[in-house]
Amino acid sequence: MKKKALSLVLASAMVVSLAACGNSSDAPANDAPAAAPAETQAAPETEAASAETAAPETEAASAETVMADGKIALVTDVGTIDDESFNQATWEGVQQFGDANGIEYTYYQPTEDSTEERINQIDLAVAEGATVVVLPGYLFGETLSEVQSTYPDVNFIAVDVSEGDMKAPIESNAYACTFSEEQAGYLAGYAAVKDGYTKLGFLGGMAVPAVIRYGYGYVQGIDAAAQELGVDVEVKYTYGGQFYGDANITAKMESWYSEGTEIVFACGGGIYTSALEAALNYDGMIIGVDVDQYSVGEGNDYNPVLTSAMKGLTATVVDKLEGCFTGQWDSFGGQVENLGLADGDYLGLPTDGASWAFKTFTQDEYEEVLTGIKDGSIVISNDTDNQPEVSEGVSVSYID
Q1: Rounded Cα gap, residues 278 and 272, in angstroms
Q2: What residues does 201 pair with on adjacent strands?
Q3: In this structure, are residues 129 and 198 in contact, taking their beta carbons and an 8 Å threshold?
Q4: CA distance 120 to 222
Q5: Residue 244 has what DSSP assignment?
Q6: Fewer CB atoms < 10 Å away: N or C end of the chain?
Q7: 133-188 pLDDT, tens per residue?
Q8: CB atoms within 10 A of CB 273
Q9: Contacts of 7 (CB under 8 A, 6+ apart)
Q10: What pLDDT is recorded for position 67?
């Protein structure tokens, strides 16, 4: 798959010390004893990072800034590092920073979906010298609550983990963030209707807050565009209950397309594979998620990926690793942040090259709605407990 590298300005000259990345430049390296070993894999060479919305450019470290010695580990959730979605995007952030700065890195993949096994892999990572551990996904909330105390000299960067996911307050050696997915979902839904689609679908993975925010934002964007254009729109909405595709989900998507659905927002890790397969069988379209997924549609008679609702996973990981390894941990350590468009370009649609596949929706129109979200003139609800209200002419069918 062709991917476009995401650039970030980093220091041109940094002095390497023997200190571990921590709350100060002379924090001691962790020497925790090895836990029961769990099998891990060598870090493979993966393709360059997807064209993804970039976090705000951080100030480049000066030549006087001390680059801490250390090792980065990433522990995957239930997915893999080549899932063309969440895990891959965070892993590419680790790769990008490590390669640019000569920092050793590797990844660990749990053998089962359990907090115990995720902790086992973190134990192994620390025993093998990891001083910074990246944790992608809400499943790490309970895990982070425990390991942050077990390893006070290790820094933890948890992406898509909220305070509600954790069982204890975040400590100074940990950082967690979530994203305002409803904003990216809104942009995708708005753009699709503006481009002429009136029969839309939403296929979520598991009904967790991030997926729900994407979906409810999508519905709100659809509704706004339908009101502007004065058109009637139909939306089918469902969750697959998992983050991977299978024959049953493909069959459901095929029934949607055969009944007239034109485009489906496939939101939830590898579940897009079912929507993609069904779309190709019925000349339909899909919307990708988290990263620019245009490449997953290449190699067919046509590319069914219209656009992708993205969040800056790769750039956020790079940004926080840079802060960690340049002695800036204190500026964000101990925080749980929610990152939205008011904070920077953390979310959006891909605008480069073939990834902009709209026929009538223009980039000027996109920039206009993007500005409205940033300045607050467009208000998008992030309520995950209540289905969004829609105007007359917009019909949403929530399907079990």
Answers
A1: 10
A2: 236, 264
A3: no
A4: 44
A5: B
A6: C
A7: 999 999 999 999 999 999 999 999 999 999 999 999 999 999 999 999 999 999 99
A8: 18
A9: none
A10: 59
Supply 215's token pair: 């979906």
CB atoms within 10 A of CB 379: 8
- Could you give the CA distance from residue 120 to residue 113 in angstroms, rounded to a whole number? 12
DSSP string across 14-80: -EE-SPPSSSSTTPPPP-PPP-S----B-----PPPPS-PPPPPPPPPPTTSEEPP-EEEEE--SS-
- Residue 206 is given by DSSP the state S
Pairing of strands 336-339, 394-398: unpaired
Q: Can you say whether residue 138 is alpha, beta or left, with left for phi > 0 and alpha for psi between -120 and 50 degrees?
A: alpha
**Alpha-carbon torsion angle 223, 227, 229, 235, nearest 10:** 30
CB of 268 within 8 A of CB of 293?
Answer: no
- Which contacts qualify for 278-281: CB closer than 8 Å, 24 or more apart? 278/250, 278/253, 278/254, 279/253, 279/304, 280/304, 281/254, 281/257
Q: Which of 52, 141, 112, 79 is nearest to 271 (CA)?
A: 79
Neighbours of 102 (CB within 10 A): 9
As a whole number of angstroms, the distance between CA 253 and CA 218 comes to 18
CA 146 to CA 121: how far, in whole Å?
13
Nearest 10 degrees: CA dihedral of 116, 107, 86, 148?
50
Q: How many CA atoms lie within 13 A of 280 on its CB side?
A: 15
CA-CA distance, 94 to 31, in Å (whole number)? Answer: 22
pLDDT digits (tens, 9 = 90+) for 194-249: 999 999 999 999 999 999 999 999 999 999 999 999 999 999 999 999 999 999 99
Closest CA to 203 of 136, 286, 283: 286
**Backbone phi, psi, residue 277, to 5°:** -60, -45
Q: Beta strand 347-348 with 305-311: parallel, antiparallel or unpaired?
A: antiparallel
